[in-house]
Amino acid sequence: MVGIDIIEVERIEKSIQNANFLAKILTYKEIEYVSQFANKCAHVAGLFCAKEAVMKALEDCKQISFKDIEIAHKNSGKPYVILNGKALEVFKKSGKQNIEISISQTNTVATAICIIS
After folding, report:
1. Where do the domains of the chain lie?
2. Which of 2, 26, 36, 61 is surrounded by the most beta carbons within 10 Å?
3. Stated pTM of the model
């Protein structure tokens, strides 16, 4: 199962104006992670795309919250997925065992791809 997403960073810059936006889509750990970067919006856009890509790869994404999917990073910087709630339930029902994620961003666009096997 594959999911991919792309977004213009400018859309995230506008969304961040709403104080509730970050709290709605990112976990506390993800907010901590993006706060370390000068171009925070590009990294938020990357995490947003990653979560969208995971939802698409899970296929049955009804009722999955952005916070049911957490994107964490190894010391090397490689991202990985932590599922909770409805997302974890859907993943377990799929019979699949592996989730891979890749995220890329520039100052203007962010993209992510997720492969579940």
Report:
1. 2-116
2. 26
3. 0.95
